[in-house]
Automatic annotation (TrEMBL):
Keywords: Membrane, Transmembrane, Transmembrane helix
Organism: Halomarina ordinaria
Compositional bias segments (type: Low complexity): 17-29
Transmembrane segments: 43-63, 69-90, 97-119, 125-144
Amino acid composition bias (Basic and acidic residues), ranges on this chain: 1-10
Protein name: DUF456 domain-containing protein
Region spans: Disordered: 1-33
Superkingdom classification of source: Archaea
Signal sequence extent: none
UniProt keyword Transcription regulation present: no
Length: 156
């Protein structure tokens, strides 16, 4: 246990044993771990990330299947998937979408250029390029989807 937890426990024990303590003890506020978990959920939603990743991978696969000989066409699938998420999302989820786009594009680039990544010793460079491009395309898709949603739902 940390020193802070020990001090908090001692303060709670002192407050309970003091004569000024009433018989009806009130609930203590949320713990530090609960507050940190609440902040983390506001910054990064695991559920939204999983949905964004599944849609980005699906978009990569579908667009890559229909246009197999066009280089980097899978990024169009990531854009379309995150655009759709932006259309239906009421909150901003740029962090989740950026990470999902980066993971999906990195996996796609490394799968496409597996031989170069392993034998050519350029795996880190390919992964970085895929992650950067995927994150950028995903954030742009989400932004434009949210922008269209705002334009469609705004009163004239």
């Amino acid at each position: 246990m940390s020193r802070t937890d020990d001090l908090l426990r001692e303060l709670e024990e002192d407050a309970e044993s003091s004569p000024s303590a009433t018989s009806s003890t009130s609930e203590a506020g949320p713990s530090r771990r609960e507050r940190l978990g609440g902040r983390l959920k506001r910054v990064f939603s695991l559920r939204y990330f999983v949905v964004a990743l599944a849609l980005a991978l699906g978009g990569l696969f579908l667009v890559g299947t229909f246009l197999p000989f066009v280089p980097a066409v899978g990024l169009l699938g990531v854009f379309l998937a995150t655009f759709g998420l932006g259309l239906v999302s009421a909150r901003r989820h740029y962090t989740e979408v950026a990470v999902a786009g980066a993971v999906a594009a990195t996996a796609s680039v490394l799968a496409d250029f597996f031989v170069f990544a392993v034998i050519g010793d350029s795996g880190a460079t390919l992964a970085a390029a895929g992650a950067g491009a995927g994150a950028l395309v995903a954030v742009l898709g989400h932004y434009f989807g949210r922008d269209l949603r705002a334009g469609l739902t705004e009163d004239l």
